[in-house]
């Protein structure tokens, strides 16, 4: 028996039941918020940008290209940097080409002409012979170092010699020799004009891989807008070389043939290397828009007649 057995039955009260746990009231229904004026502006801006993007994809805007004018100092800088980077490719073929040219000039002026009594023809032929060597040298030089002007890796020398258009260069030289000599027989001015307009024939044959008539045509069209630059930087120095060679020939006795040969060789080598590099730099600048080693190629500066597709 427990201690609560003696209690009356009505005096015991049941314990109160614990209150039920409070349940979380349901969340109020979510309704989309009303668009504010700022939301309308943002949506309108997105639509406008989307339309502009689609319009640009259909008709992209072309920014106007700014052409950099050709300057003689730029050509000299391009030529000097190329010579510093590739001295062997510049000098080795020059030694061979202008050595043979000096031998040819010495033989003609000191032996054949004097014995045949053709002194009146000497002036016309020396200038043409100088152009002959320079045309071939500039054409070969373009294949050797033209890629350097465009910041590209030049071809190996063996590949250059195997793929060089020898026949086209020789034919172009022969044509230029005959035309320049014929012009020089009458007046020196026509010879200077012809030599200026055809100054880029050799490099163009290599760079564009075109035929000889096409190279002459493109050379005339490319040089004509820059006639005075080409005249001052290529043709006049070539004429100065001719006059110096003639002056030394007149001062040196005819018995000293080796001295005449040495003079022709030194003058031809120095002027030929400088003028050949200028011709290559000028051709690369006008055809591809190159600005020399260390600078990017700018296609907007190309002035190739017939459009860029010709390259």
List its traits:
311 residues, mainly alpha
Globular, elongated, flat, extended or rod-shaped: what is the shape?
elongated
Oligomeric state of the chains present here:
single chain
Structural class: mainly alpha
N/C terminus separation? 122 Å
What's the tally of helices? 11
**Average predicted local confidence, pLDDT:** 77
Strand content: under 5%
Helical content (DSSP H or I, runs of 4+): 55-70%
Order of SSEs, N→C? Answer: HHHHHHHHHHH
Uncertain runs with pLDDT below 50, 5 residues or more? 113-118, 306-311
Total count of strands: 0
Give a quick account of the main beta sheet: strands, pairing sense, barrel closure.
none
Total tally of structural domains: 1
